[in-house]
Design a protein that fits this description.
Helices cover 21% and strands 33% of the residues. The chain is an alpha+beta fold. A hairpin with a 2-residue loop joins strand 3 and strand 4. It is globular and about 50 Å long. It starts with a strand and ends with a strand. The N terminus is likely disordered.
């Protein structure tokens, strides 16, 4: 299932390609048209998450003016269009809000069930709606990426507590067919260096693999520490991406 391809020009590293990875070229759109359809808003060829869930929007990669007009009408004047890694160029009067270089990584480890222990880590707890205030507080302190009051509805979120206080978490975000994105990997400053992030990511990998899917994730190019951790856990770079957001006139 896993096949390596030649290095990207100038990147100095190999990139992993999977025959069934085409859904990862539009992870937001594929999620909203499928597994996360119940969390979507749609107009014409544009689709976005409910505001309390996530900021991400999607239109076709080869978008025409009508598709951008659909998205503008769906979000509204003056609103923020978080295009994630969509390569399409918006209308010239849409103001850039941010540009962030990153990479998409896929897990290429051994997915055989016997490679994962049957007993779960007793120090890891599943998080839910009752934990949202603490989750939002941890995100505010650590800045792992966008996280809203209903983001936990995207999938399973796991955490580690120390003395009853939530000090680390991670969870499932985008869900294109056959894949689950691992996201919101964060640890409070006072709890770093204890291996919490690795434990949480391994626990999510086990859950994703158990239901017959493959894990993937996105990471900022400048976050070299996180990239090194993910590589140790069995992830390899599939492609480099640019995350972009715009303000609608």
């Amino acid at each position: 299932m896993v096949g390596r391809v030649r290095p990207e020009a100038g990147k100095g590293q190999h990139v992993v390609g999977l025959r069934d990875a085409v859904a990862l070229d539009d992870p937001v759109g594929e999620s909203l048209r499928g597994h996360h359809g119940h969390l979507a808003r749609r107009l014409g060829r544009a689709v976005t998450y409910l505001p309390a869930v996530a900021t991400f929007s999607a239109i076709p990669a080869e978008a025409d003016p009508a598709a951008w007009a659909d998205l503008a009408a769906l979000l509204g004047p003056g609103e923020f269009a978080d295009m994630f890694s969509c390569p399409a160029a918006p209308p010239s009067d849409w103001d850039p809000v941010f540009v962030l270089e990153g990479r998409q990584m896929i897990w290429v480890g051994d997915s055989r069930p016997d490679r994962f222990p049957a007993r779960e880590d007793p120090g890891i707890v599943e998080l839910g709606a009752q934990d949202v205030p603490e989750m939002l507080g941890l995100v505010e302190r650590t800045r792992p990426g966008p996280f809203r009051p209903r983001t936990h509805e995207l999938g399973t979120y796991l955490g580690v507590r120390d003395g009853g206080t939530l000090v680390a978490m991670t969870g499932e975000r985008l869900r294109p067919p056959g894949w689950t994105e691992i996201s919101a990997v964060c640890t409070a400053p006072e709890a770093r260096g204890r291996g919490h992030a690795a434990r949480l990511v391994r626990a999510l990998i086990a859950r994703v693999v158990a239901r017959g899917e493959r894990p993937f994730l996105h990471v900022a190019e400048a976050n070299t520490g996180a990239i090194a951790l993910y590589e140790r856990l069995g992830f390899e770079t599939r492609k480099h991406v640019t995350f972009r957001g715009f303000r609608i006139p």
